Amino acid sequence: MMRHRPQRAQTTQVLEWEMGRGRHVLDNLVGEEPLEIRVNGIAVSVTMRTPGDDFELAAGFLFGEGIAPTGGEIRRIAYGRGPDGRTSGNVVDVTLGEGAPVDLDRFRRHFVAASSCGICGKASIDAVRARGLRRPRGDAAIDPGRLCALPDRLRPAQALFGKTGGLHAAALFDPEDRLVSIREDVGRHNAVDKIVGHAVLERRVPLSNHLLLVSGRGGFEIVQKALVAGVPIVASVSAPSSLAVRLAREYDLTLVGFLRGQRFVVYAGEDRIAADGSAACIGSGARA
Question: Which of these, 11, 139, 98, 113, lies nearest to 57 by C-alpha position?
Answer without folding.
Answer: 113
